[in-house]
Amino acid sequence: MSTRALPEGRYGRVRDRAPRRWRKWVFTAAGLVLGVVVTWVAYVNIGPAPISADRLSYANRPGNVMELTINVVRDDESRPGVCIVRTRDKSGAESGRKEVFVPPGNNQSLQTTLIHSTDLPVMADIFGCSYTVPPYLSRN
């Protein structure tokens, strides 16, 4: 099957549909800007936390109580912080929770606390840490 030529002058001039060069540069620049923005947002949200804690030890105490020792590491030793710690029962459900105040001091701080549980606790872990200390926890 062959293509028929259009009648001359009836439909206007047939243009060559070659892509314009400026479009390629605009889309390349837009892609680079978008990539930088996505990278920056990911770094801010997923990057290193300014305050964090590691669980060092935990042990059961009488009466559904667990003792937990954590090591808090922070980037600004002059600011107080707070860490939320919790216990879990045999089913894995959270059975106790406590906020631990971390006073200003060294950039590494050992904190030991007792967490009361509603059921027999089998493990303790750290939910998270923050520099946003609630007013009822701050020690002035």
UniProtKB/TrEMBL annotation:
UniProt xrefs under Pfam families: DUF4307
UniProt superkingdom: Bacteria
Regions that span the bilayer: 25-43
Keywords attached to this entry: Membrane, Transmembrane, Transmembrane helix
Protein's UniProt name: DUF4307 domain-containing protein
Organism whose genome encodes this protein: Amycolatopsis taiwanensis
